[in-house]
Design goal:
The chain is an alpha/beta fold. It is 30% helix and 24% strand. The strands form 4 sheets. It has a 5-stranded mixed beta sheet, sandwiched between helices. It has a 4-stranded mixed beta sheet with strand order 8-13-12-11, with helices on both faces. A two-stranded antiparallel ribbon has the order 2-3. Strand 4, helix 4 and strand 5 form a beta-alpha-beta unit. The chain binds oxa(dethia)-CoA (UT7). Oxa(dethia)-CoA binds next to helix 2 and helix 7.
Length: 345
């Protein structure tokens, strides 16, 4: 891309959404057959009933490309108009080339610059912040942000503390330049990192496509998590970050139409909802069917919320991500779509 430095003042707009879930459904019953757990324990402690796994030959880039195409179709935007592709992911196809470059090529975004972003489950909102900055600085007009993960390939399927949670999928958004007079766009971000908790959630390897042929990463290279410590961090940070944003904007939870948080555990979301006073109908939860897909979880949830009629043009959203790093990232944004086409299925 060639940055347009002479652009007039403009606001970044959340203009389209799209998602993709791989076909293979893995139920709690299937996990019960492998590790010492029960469907009841998983449902009551996490809210998850089933999740999706990528096909053996399916990679993070493959899934991201489908989600990206759905975002563009939803917006009615030709891929040639995309200036930048950012892929937040913990499971890139390789350390380089960037998965984003593969996605840009796959969708025909020939003039786009492309890079990956590493902020674990906070990655999608971190990437939205970067997209906003690029658009509002006049560096880009159309930025595609696509979170995509093949966590099933880096999960120790004999570790009952993690194998019940992690899953695969992709979701994306188009951040585009809107007229400053008429666009609300992204009102604020709250981003943070606390590396003192770095060892509480660790993934030593990425999503190398050769792992599929090997049946996944070796156990000592898979995700390691101190579940209760991350749980405490997540419940605290979700409330604090959301409250900080709302206070800074002189807004209350009554001004928010829908809260879409990282889908890690229903108990984390329910705790935050209680503390922040979010009524159930304004908290989106798709954990039951999709589990924890890290950087893909918020955009997958957004696209599903739209398709389920829970998210309408003009709605004010509160997005909250948290995860490895430890990191967190929240935003308040108005959903201002370019198109109406629903692309999830
Ligand atoms: O996406 C990144 C962010 N990640 C998160 O936010 C995850 C945060 N953590 C969690 O969601 C929860 O900590 C878990 C779901 C991972 C675990 O739930 P928990 O309520 O924190 O359980 P725990 O680790 O404190 O374990 C309680 C008990 C233990 O048994 P004892 O020692 O009390 O006898 C565990 O061994 O539950 C046992 N346990 C299980 N039992 C049946 C742990 N995993 C399982 C299991 N099935 N799958």
């Amino acid at each position: 891309m060639t940055p347009d430095r002479s652009a007039p003042r403009r606001r970044a707009r959340l203009a389209a959404l799209g998602g993709y879930a791989p076909a293979r459904v893995v139920t709690n019953a299937e996990i019960e057959r492998r590790v010492d757990t029960t469907d009841e324990w998983i449902r009551t402690r996490t809210g998850i009933r089933e999740r999706r796994y990528a096909a053996p030959d399916e990679t993070t880039a493959d899934m991201a490309a489908v989600a990206a195409e759905r975002v563009l179709a939803s917006a009615g935007l030709p891929s040639a108009e995309v200036d930048m592709v950012i892929v937040p992911t913990a499971t890139p196809d390789a350390l380089f080339p960037a998965t984003a470059a593969i996605v840009a090529d796959r969708i025909g975004a020939r003039r786009a610059a492309a890079y990956d972003l590493s902020a674990a489950c906070s990655g999608f909102v971190y990437a939205l912040a970067q997209a906003t900055a690029l658009v509002e600085a006049g560096m880009a007009g159309n930025v595609l942000v696509v979170g995509s993960e093949v966590l099933s390939r880096v999960t120790d399927h004999d570790d009952r503390a993690t194998c019940i949670l992690f899953a695969d999928g992709a979701g994306g958004a188009l951040v585009t330049a809107g007229d400053a007079e008429t666009t609300t766009g992204f009102l604020a971000f709250d981003l943070g990192a606390d590396g003192s908790g770095a060892d509480q959630l660790v993934l030593p390897v990425g999503g190398d496509r050769r792992l599929a042929a090997a049946g996944g990463a070796p156990a000592d290279a898979c995700i390691r998590m101190d579940g209760p410590a991350v749980f405490r961090f997540a419940t605290r940070v979700m409330v604090e970050s959301a409250q900080r944003l709302l206070d800074g904007l002189s807004m209350g939870i009554a001004d928010i139409d829908l809260v879409v948080a990282h889908q890690a555990n229903s108990r984390i979301m329910d705790h935050a909802a209680e503390r922040l006073g979010i009524p159930p109908e304004r908290l989106f939860n798709n954990l039951e069917l999709f589990g924890n897909t890290s950087s893909a979880s918020i955009p997958m949830a957004l696209a599903q919320a739209r398709d389920a009629g829970r998210l309408s043009p003009g709605d004010m959203l509160l997005l909250v991500g948290f995860g490895g790093g430890l990191t967190w990232a929240s935003s308040v944004v108005r959903y201002e779509p370019l198109g109406e086409e629903h692309q999830w299925a």
